[in-house]
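Why does residue order matter? Because the sequence determines the fold. Keep that principle in mind as you read this record.
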Amino acid sequence: MVSPVPPTYDSVRVRVPAKINLALKVGPRRRDGFHPLATVYHAVSLFDEVTVNRAPPGRFSITVTGEGAASVPRDDSNLALRAARLLATSFTDESVAGARIEIAKQIPVAGGLAGGSADGAASLVGCSMLWDLDLSPEQLRRVAALLGSDVPFAMLGGTAMGSGRGEEVMPALARGTFHWVLGFAHQGLSTPAVYRRFDELNPRPAVPRVPVALMEALRAGDPEALGAALDNDLQPAALDLQPKLGRTLSAGLELGAVGAVVSGSGPTIAFLAGDENAAVDLAVALSSEGLCRSVRRATGPVPGARPI
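Structure:
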């Protein structure tokens, strides 16, 4: 855990990365509505920045700028706001802690990149420092798990295996740096809708297990082997709901990607390039095809939520 900022500080700014799922294996729907997952998270260099500022006791507010700002909720359904309130009630007294939260977004909304979860993780890190709580990483992770499946990984970053509904994370060995081209779709996808379609397409899904070949490729730092092992059980459902994504996938592979996968519940597609030069060429070529709203290059793995 980073050293706490002295309580005389009036604000803390935290940078937090997007994630892609290198593998996302999905089991049968549980009674609580969640699906058991076996996933491999990978944090990439596309970042939101969250600034938490001192506010009067008991006062919490949020403003959002940047990518998709108009689509981000400003009420208690916003994970950054919920994170601040939960931290206050868990470790202080909400009547004596307050925060004014500012989110500068680059991670697309409803893009399968866990942008909302990333903002929740950044809010936890920032508020714990702003209020000088001196919490251990494990204490923060327990709060993060209450907020959502992807929040604990957004705090951890790097490359990690996820289980449970995704909230149980364990660091995984990944050698070297991987070069990605992210293709952003013209419209988002609802995660619940994708899972509903998955259930319709897979009435009896198998027990989820992370592919062995993918873990071996990560340990070897081999992009071609990793590209061949990328695997997402939600991908057929996402392609069914947005058929244009299939054309984008095919185009990226034809233009030289060594692998491609819909990230999470989509609709962002992560294309893996063989090296940096190949990623530059792929990004230019994919942009010229006009199939994506926009294209961004990124590298991974990168650290999770960190103050800057």
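Residues 115-130 form the longest helix (16 residues).
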